[in-house]
Please model this.
Amino acid sequence: MNLEYPSEENLKYLLDALADHLGVVNRKIMDPDDYDLDKYDDLKLMYDMVTQKANLSAAEKQAFIEELRSVRKS
Model:
C-alpha cells in the first residue's frame, strides 16, 4: 500500500492506524466519511508523527485527537 497518494482506501487505513496508536475508544470520530480527501496531507503528517514515536503521553494523544477534530468535515 502506497500511502503517498490520497484515496478513500488510504484515508481509511490512516484513520484506523491513528485510532489504534492513539487508543481511541469512540471509533465514530474516526469515520472516513467525516473527512475530506483534501485534508489527506494533514492526516498523513499526523500519521507519520504518531507512528514514528514509540510512546505518546496522554497529553500528546489528546493533542492529536483535538487536531483530528479540527480537520473533520464541518
